Amino acid sequence: MKPSIKTFSLLFVTCFLLLLGTCANPFGEGERATFTINLGGGTERLAWGPNDPPGSFPTFNDLRFEIAFTPAAAGTYEKITVDGPSSSVIQGDIDPGEYTVTLDIYFRDGGGIYLYANGSLVDDIGNPITHVTIVSGSNTVVHIKATQVIDDGSSTNPFKVYDETTLQAVGSGGMPYGTNPWGRAHHYVLMKDVTLTVPWTPLCTGTSPFLGIFDGNGKTINLGSDKVTTNASGGNFFYAGLFDAIYIGSMVKNLRLEGSIDVSSLGGGDYVNVGAVAAQANGGSIMNVYSNVNITAASGYLSYAGGIVGDNNGGNVLNCRNEGTITGNGPGRGVVGGIVGQNSGTVTFCWGDGNIIAPTVTNTDTGGIAGIIRSSGGTLTNCVALNNTITGGFTSYTGRVFGRTQTTTIDFNFANDAMSGVTVTEDYQTGKDGEDANTTQANNMTWWTTTAGWTSIQANKSAASESNPWYWGAGNRPRLWFE
Q: Looking at the predicted structure, is the pLDDT value of residue 193 above 90?
């Protein structure tokens, strides 16, 4: 039987369509292609400073590489993300096709939002390549040339702090790397834990206070053992802390502090302000800070000592906690508190369990959260003082939560009912001793979220974040998201 003309026509069309399909997909149909990208050693450390040892920071392990393959024509966009590659070679697989290839390098810390460098394809001698053809089997994209994005201190590209040198440069106007000066109003982010090994001069004085944003990024600054010295500000005024002074519009956040500060050698008519974060907050905000810094302050006339801030003069202290022992020594009067010494700002959703030691001097103000609350804007709400002891002080001005107040903007405050060293006279939420909280209550998350009003405590660490910083953690206590 001979095939008909109709049969020949059908065979021709079928062969033509098969041929057309082959031509339409010359790279290999239905197969994934493997590729190798050589980043080059220069990508590991691009330009942090001429005197830095190579590879000091960042290394590949500090970085996140995002390599984007964009089809030259129709096709599927693909992105390869690699955290901390072990070498300058990255391998993967992709659909065959023609692509432009771009690279963005981010710091892994901080959720991968801080850009370090970006790049594009080049050939063996560094000439740009517009696209690459990837076929079935193995492919090599010879090089990606990356260029560091120079930090400008903006919110999207903050200056990166990663050692003592860069930390001391915050707000100084100096240029520890790059070409842009580090001003008082810029944004900063702490990229690695830092431990002080040399004497520390507090950042930004009262006459030139910090105006920017310092994001601790959940990292730790260890102030060392009494490495912090004081800034003298005319006359006999002395200030000690990570910062001397912060001001309206500034913010310090997401930071863990360790170590000790001892400025008790000062005397003879001196005024002394000491706080782990700042000696004085003349406005600005301090939020999401944990301090385990032991502080010792003394003066011949007056000292303000607080676990977070010495003199909170209009600042906002939110979601902070202190475990350090706060000590105010004579011979002068002390104002000593677990979170702040003097408060004419706002203190809210803070708790502490560090012990308080105050001078037994007339009119000394002492409390587990604050020493004194001033009438000029002082607010203290939703705070819990779980300190075991308060030692010394002036009996009339010593309380479990605060020593003395000149304002009525106080509410929802609680205190350890077994705290020693305090003669309790005002055991209610608006009183200086706060409402009683026994061990069973303090160990119960429901008590915190209902009675104490801490409604945003998360059930576990993975659910906590900068905006919802507390979670129920170790020791049956609220912990900050980075603890």
A: yes
